[in-house]
Specification:
The structure is a homodimer. With about 230 residues, chain A is mainly α. Chain A has a domain of about 140 residues: Tetracycline Repressor, domain 2, CATH 1.10.357. In chain A, about 60% of the residues lie in helices and about 0% in strands. Chain A has eleven helices and no strands. The radius of gyration of chain A is 22 Å and the shape is elongated. The termini of chain A are far apart. Chains A and B meet through α9, α10 and α11 of A and α9, α10 and α11 of B. Chain B binds a DNA duplex (16 and 16 nucleotides) through α3.
Chain lengths: ~230, ~230
Amino acid sequence: MTVKVLALNPAPKRPRGRPPKTAEQRDDGNRRRDLVRAAAKLFRQHGYDATTTRDIAAAVGMQSGSPFYHFGSKADLLVAVMEDGMRDGLARVQATAQQVQDQSAARQLRALVRTHLDVLWGPGSDFIPVMLQEWRVLKPTQTKGINALKDAYEGHWTPLLQSLKAQGRLRGDVGLVRLFLFGALNWTIKWFDARGSASLDELADAVMVMWLHDEPEPETGGGQDGTV
Amino acid sequence: MTVKVLALNPAPKRPRGRPPKTAEQRDDGNRRRDLVRAAAKLFRQHGYDATTTRDIAAAVGMQSGSPFYHFGSKADLLVAVMEDGMRDGLARVQATAQQVQDQSAARQLRALVRTHLDVLWGPGSDFIPVMLQEWRVLKPTQTKGINALKDAYEGHWTPLLQSLKAQGRLRGDVGLVRLFLFGALNWTIKWFDARGSASLDELADAVMVMWLHDEPEPETGGGQDGTV
DNA sequence: CCTACCGATCGGTAGG
DNA sequence: CCTACCGATCGGTAGG
């Protein structure tokens, strides 16, 4: 049995003050999530500035002032969208990295690329596109926490790119490779149509074909990996 | 002597109503350009929505309502920024393409890439970044003319990419290659710092190193490149 | 979380 | 191109 022993938290065993509406209680934590989800969708469709807090409220059946019961400002809502998105994206990348850790570096990269495309385009993923497109509306103080998540996200890629470069299958400065690779993938939010002709798998394949160079031939007869 | 014989225009030989300030007269056509330039700069810095028509007016020393003497709406100003930017960008790409037409396909591509980076990052080039970032605020009817310019711009790339693919130096579907290549380059508007460590030349070199594959070896025995 | 509301801002216009 | 202004919208708040 794991028992939470967080020193803070005044042990809210029994409800205080608020009438015991169990149905509403159950929703309670979800209302905030509903707002974030609706905000993500609307921000993605129309942009942050063009979306009003009234739009977001209406999308979840609230009155115009009610979002401010959950969030201090419209910008805080945007921060929440980005943070939730990055937290989820990071989890997905971590899961993928673990699943494929025993495979070849090339296969690992393909898996990460595919996961990244899914983070951008999979069902219910408006969060990261919003982050990518609306990054500049936030001030540095507001993006501190998100930056930490982004660093962790990118951290999963660098060693892989380095090992592929060591194998001669990737060329150029690894830092630039990563930036250009993310650029190529992230830019899909400007042109890719999920209902269109190409699939995410085809996109991932194309990336690999374009970027991965042939394995250098072994020097001597029996060399197995390129070096030795 | 070229004499304007435009049937319309009631021949404004002598100034009517307005006092004959010749200096102001000389600026007349430039005021509009001033507005477009100021708009580009401000749109780039703060985004379209966050920039007010008052900001733009102030930037060129006008009163708040005066931009609407030159432009019907704020959106029209954005259209003008994009159109001017694309017209200039297209001219630059055309000039480059002509200058290097006798060089190898690889050199031609490198030249185009470098020019594109200059369109994005050279002095006074806020126009295209604005276009790339604010594309979605315009309705399809407003982007018709710009789309034609974009098609022409991209038209300069496709045959080159095709010939590089035929040489085996570029891999994957040419359409996707172009999209991913533009993506990688355009995404620099999100991270590149013109005052930073890397130069535009280094960026262009990195792109070539990453994307271009080794030339396939000749079929017959005397292989000259990687083998023997 | 709703009701009722404020204060500021902003695109745009009439009229010269 | 300026003066003076309108009308609407919008983020946010008090008070329950």
